[in-house]
Q: What sequence folds into this?
């Protein structure tokens, strides 16, 4: 992912000028350092002390010209820093991102922790086929592949642009033999033989009510893909579909696990109970105490 090399002196000058721009827009110098850590691989201390200034050749994930253009977009139009850098740390991974995919959030990491605890208690869940529905950058699928060493994973998205980013990430981690990328709406790209055979389904679907999108921060509503955000009139359009459709695909005891937004968990539990094919329905909270995840098992 190296785009070009720069001297330490060039990076030092770029940093000074970016810090001064940031101050003009009321942003913190920390943003500049976050960006440079991501793009140059230098650490915070080196940036702070300027100990890199004498280095003749520092690899960059983006050219300084491109970085300057995107940095201006950040200052003037709130382009998220992760899109400026073109990558971000997520769990123990570094993932490529572009405005064609949602920026994976820290809360989503917890979905993987939930699966980790489940497979410790029930090791047979390690095997079989898992699906990441609405894979975006491929974050969940890749983390699952590391966690479930014997599982085969389908990473599915309806957006070809998202799948292209996911494909780069899967390739970067050499997981092409473990993760199959499929384009289609939810389960539609799986063939009939997958029915009642899937060990686990994980999804972080679009769940924001259409009418709330306009109220989101500009860095989200103006730059992240609407397809990744908009969950229909009440935000539950896709979750409702996943409740209804998953029993056709999950094996008995199969895992149904999704992320949702504040205020939706109670309704989703009711939907699962009323559907009739689920058991062991549980709500989990995120770091801030928000009911953010619902786990259920296929009867
Ligand atoms: C909230 S994003 C989650 C992305 C990624 N899994 C993550 O957690 O960072 C929702 C994803 O669902 C995808 N999506 C939306 N509608 C879909 C559909 N009908 N079928 C499959 N994927 C869909 C979007 O393209 C987007 O990548």
A:
């Amino acid at each position: 992912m190296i785009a070009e090399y720069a001297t330490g002196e060039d990076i030092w000058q770029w940093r000074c000028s970016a810090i001064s721009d940031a101050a003009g827009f009321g942003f913190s110098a920390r943003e500049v350092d976050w960006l440079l850590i991501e793009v140059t691989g230098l650490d915070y201390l080196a940036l702070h002390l300027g100990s890199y200034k004498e280095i003749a050749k520092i690899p960059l994930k983006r050219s300084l010209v491109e970085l300057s253009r995107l940095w201006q977009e950040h200052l003037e139009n709130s382009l998220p820093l992760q899109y400026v850098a073109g990558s971000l740390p997520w769990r123990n991974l570094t993932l490529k991102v572009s405005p064609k995919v949602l920026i994976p959030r820290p809360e989503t990491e917890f979905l993987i922790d939930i699966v980790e605890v489940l497979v410790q208690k029930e090791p047979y869940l390690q095997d079989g086929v898992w699906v990441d529905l609405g894979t975006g950058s491929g974050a969940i699928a890749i983390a699952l592949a590391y966690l479930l060493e014997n599982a085969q994973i389908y990473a599915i998205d309806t957006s070809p642009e998202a799948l292209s980013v996911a494909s780069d990430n899967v390739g970067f981690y050499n997981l092409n033999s473990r993760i199959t990328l499929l384009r289609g709406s939810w389960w539609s790209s799986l063939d009939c033989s997958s029915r009642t055979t899937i060990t686990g389904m994980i999804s972080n679907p679009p769940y924001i009510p259409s009418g709330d999108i306009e109220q989101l921060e500009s860095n989200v509503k103006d730059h992240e893909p609407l397809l990744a955000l908009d969950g229909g009139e009440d935000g539950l359009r896709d979750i409702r579909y996943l409740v209804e459709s998953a029993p056709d695909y999950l094996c008995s005891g199969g895992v149904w696990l999704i992320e949702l937004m504040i205020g939706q968990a109670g309704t989703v539990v009711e939907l699962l109970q009323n559907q009739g094919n689920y058991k062991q329905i549980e709500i989990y909270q995120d770091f801030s105490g928000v009911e953010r995840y619902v786990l259920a098992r296929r009867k």
